[in-house]
Design goal:
The protein has 16 helices and eleven strands. It is an alpha/beta fold and 403 residues long. It has a domain at 80-297 and 355-365: TIM Barrel. α4 crosses α5 (135-147), α6 runs parallel beside α7 (207-219) and α7 packs across α8. Residues 1-14 have a biased composition (Polar residues).
């Protein structure tokens, strides 16, 4: 499928490099910005009011083209990046809730994990309506409510697609996007989420319907941005072009799996979209649900957290390819020892250095494990081109651009 990007290139040429990096500046009343005040309720200015005239922009020195401006949090060492080329700043490491919240860990442990994450500068918390049949959202919402943190100080994302057993409770119809998000907000006990993801593409729903529904929930103040998850590059481009054609809101990021053994999409396809239309990447499963750690010495026991209740993961890990990958994980041990880190920290840092990646989502079963994984930020600065080349040589799977 060929999609015209003439309007995209003209749009990008007409804006300075810093405008392309940070996205449109909010005009009076909020515009594309996030909430101004704190609280646990609705975002100020939400509800689809008529936009006011945009104020004149004051020229500022241009930033390097294509760069993700990175800053470091005071006292935590956490690094923050723009979500794609939007103005939203997210921690380079986020906390995911798949497999863990409402399922494999207790609510008390989940609270410990979330508290440690927040205190260490993590501001991105990701969940989905399908995780633990809604229990993950309930657990996250209960913790956020009990903590009383300022709503403006963190970012909550959820994903919509699989909401129930009825035919109308799944997919990306206008009905399910709106009702599914309302259900998520009820479970989260929030007035809005910062980002709502379409949790896979839906061939049964027209793209225009999907983009119009996402624009509607943003206009109504139920979400501030929308993104895609597990979409193909052509589908993302179609959504963007549809938004531009009908003056709707385009997606700002794609959520995709990315790790040492799954590289093609995030390293080849998404950087092109990042430069052309500003779509960033939020990546998940950097450790393949705990399989990329070296602690199993090439063998994956049934006690592994990733295996419990997920037979397909067990089958994949014990396949011929899975065994070869485990052997390569062990080959990374000398590099990790040389850098003074664990293989898990090395694998996460390796994900963080990929172009266009705004944040890498971590899935952990304890606060201690989270603290270890957060140490990947210190490893990131040690990944020299020579070290990366050595890793690529061991893996033997570096993708090549098709240009």
């Amino acid at each position: 499928m060929q999609v015209s990007i003439a309007c995209t290139e003209q749009n990008l040429r007409s804006r300075s490099s810093e405008d392309r990096l940070c996205g449109p500046r909010p005009g009076p009343g909020g515009g594309n910005g996030g909430p101004v005040g704190g609280g646990h309720g609705n975002p100020p200015g939400g509800g689809g009011s008529v936009p006011k005239a945009r104020a004149a922009l004051v020229p500022r020195p241009p930033a390097p083209a294509g760069a993700l401006r990175e800053s470091t949090g005071r006292g935590t060492g956490m690094k923050y990046r723009n979500l794609g080329k939007s103005g939203l700043r997210v921690s380079c490491l986020g906390l995911g809730t798949w497999v863990t919240f409402g399922s494999q860990i207790s609510d008390e442990t989940a609270e410990d994990v979330l508290t440690v994450a927040y205190e260490h500068g993590v501001n991105l918390f990701d969940t989905a309506e399908v995780y633990a049949a809604g229990k993950a959202e309930r657990t996250l919402g209960n913790i956020l409510k009990s903590k009383g943190w300022r709503r403006s100080s963190y970012v909550v994302t959820t994903k919509i697609f699989w909401g129930g057993q009825a035919e109308t409770e799944r997919g990306l119809s206008r009905k399910h996007i709106i009702e599914g998000l309302q259900g998520s907000l009820e479970r989260l006990q929030l007035g809005y989420v910062d980002i709502v993801f379409a949790n896979r593409s839906d061939p049964n729903s027209p793209m225009e319907e999907i983009v119009r529904a996402m624009t509607y929930v943003i206009d109504q103040g139920l979400a501030l941005y929308w993104g895609t998850s597990r979409w193909g590059a052509a589908e993302i481009m179609e959504a963007y072009s549809m938004a531009r054609q009908f003056n709707l809101i385009p997606p700002v990021c794609e959520q995709a799996e990315h790790r040492l053994f799954q590289r093609e999409k995030v390293q080849v396809q998404l950087p092109e979209l990042y430069h052309k239309i500003g779509v960033g990447s939020v990546t998940l499963s950097p450790l393949a649900c705990g399989l990329i750690t070296s602690k199993y010495d090439g063998r994956v026991p049934d006690t592994c957290r990733a295996i419990k209740g997920y037979q397909w993961l067990k089958d994949k890990a014990q396949s011929e390819d899975g065994k070869k990958q485990q052997a390569k994980v062990m080959d990374l041990l000398p590099i990790a020892h040389q850098l003074g880190c664990t293989v898990a920290q090395l694998a996460i840092a390796w994900c963080l250095r990929t172009e266009g990646v705004s944040s890498v989502l971590l899935g952990v079963s304890s606060a201690e494990q989270l603290i270890e994984h957060l140490g990947a930020i210190q490893v990131l600065s040690q990944l020299t081109p020579q070290t990366v080349t050595e890793i690529d040589g061991l893996l033997g799977n570096k993708p090549h651009s098709k240009k």
